[in-house]
Amino acid sequence: MELGGCAQTPTLNPQRGTNVNAASFGRTAALLSLASFVLVACGEANNPVAENGDENGNGENGGGETSEVQGTLVGGGASSQEAAMTAWTNGFTSVAPEAQVNYASVGSGAGRDGFLGGEYDWAGSDSAMEDEEWEQSKEICGPDGAFHIPAYISPIAVAFNVEGIDETLNLDADTIASIFSGEVTSWDDDAIAEHNEDVDLPDTPITVVHRADDSGTTDNFTEYLEAAASTWEWEASDAWPSEISAESAQQNSGVVDLTSQTDGAITYADASQIGGLNSVAVLVGEDYVEHNAEAASQAVASSTPVEGQAPNNMAVELDRDTEEAGAYPIVLAAYNIFCNEYPDQQTADLAVAFAEYLVSEEGQQTAEAAAGNAPMSEDLRSTAMDAISQISAQ
C-alpha cells in the first residue's frame, strides 16, 4: 500500500481513507488551524457510516462507530499527558472493545527513545523530534518516518508554595528567569514586589524545584525563558541546566509533591497536575495573564509549523515572546508521535483507530474533563484526521 493511498482498515471516522497529495498536504499543514482541506473520498465501502449514526459517522455512543480492531497498542512518554492518557485509554474501550492501549508515563525523552528503539508503538512527547531523531525514525517507520499530532494542548504553570501567600502572584519573564536561575533568592525581593504592590511578601527563602529527568515540560519552559527573558543565558533543552544548583524530582508528580512539601518552593509543571499549589500570572504585553485552556490555545493558534520532516507532520514552533492580548506563552503542545508505516496491518489498524479517537470530539472532551487541556479546533481536527489517514502497513 502506498503512503498516500487509502488504508483498508476499520474506521472511526469517514475522513479515514482520504487521499491527499503529499505536496498539497505539506502546504496545507503549514496553515494548521487556519487550514482547510479538499477531501477526496475513497468510496463508501472503505468509509462506512455507523448504523444509527449521522453523515459524519457519529453513532449513538457520541464518539463514532464501534471499531473492530483487536490487539494491544503500547506507548510511552510524557508525564504531562498522564491524566489525559488515562482518560483516553479508558475511553477508547467504548469504541474499540476488543483493543487495549497501554501507556508508560516515563517522560518525553524516554518515550521518544523507546519509540525509536522499537519498545513502543507510539510516543507521547512535550517537544517535537529533532531532525536527527526524525531521520532515525525512518528505520522503523518507513521512508516518511514518524509524524506528530498535537492532541494535547496545555499551559505550563509556574507554581509555588509560600506560607502567607494564598493568591496568584504577578511576574514578568525576567523575574521568573531570575528566580529559577538563583539570582532572586527571597520572596520579598524588590523584583517580585514591584509586580505585586498589594501583597505582603514574606522573607522566606526561595527553593527552586526542577525536573530531574529529561522532560518536554522542561524543554517548553526553558524555550519560554530563552525567548522572553533577557536574564536567562542558557539554551532551551529537555535537561535542566547543570550549572544551576536547585532541588529536583522525577516527573510532574514528583516536582509538585516536593514543592507542596517545601515552604518557599517554586516549580514548573503541567497546569492540570499542580493540585492546590498557587501559580503565577505572566506579563504579556501590558497585562498579566493567568494560565487557562483558552489562553494556551490562543498561543498555539499563532504558532509556526516545523518544516523539513514528514509531509503530514503537525509539529509547531511556538511564539514564546508574544505580546498578543490574552495569550499565555508558557504552553506545551504535547504530541502523540506515530509511524507513517507499521510492520503489520494489525498494528497499523490499532494506531489509526487510537489516533482518530485522540483527536475526535469525544476524545478531546474526555481529555478536557480529565486534564483541563484546550480542545482542538475543528480545522485542526480535520488536519489531524488527514495526517492519520496516511498511516499504512509496510
TrEMBL record:
Transmembrane domains' residue ranges: none
The keyword Transport is annotated on this UniProt entry: yes
Domain PBP, residue spans: 67-362
Keyword Cytoplasm among UniProt keywords: no
Pfam families, sorted: PBP_like_2 (PF12849)
InterPro entries assigned to the protein according to its UniProt record, in alphabetical order: ABC_phos-bd_PstS, PBP_domain, Phosphate-bind_PstS
Gene Ontology CC, one term: ATP-binding cassette (ABC) transporter complex
A GO biological-process term: phosphate ion transmembrane transport
UniProt superkingdom: Bacteria
Alphabetically ordered keywords of this record: Phosphate transport, Transport
GO molecular function, one term: phosphate ion binding
Ranges for region Disordered: 49-80
Protein family membership: Belongs to the PstS family.
Name the UniProt record assigns to this protein: Phosphate-binding protein
Organism: Nesterenkonia sphaerica
Origin organism lineage: Bacteria, Bacillati, Actinomycetota, Actinomycetes, Micrococcales
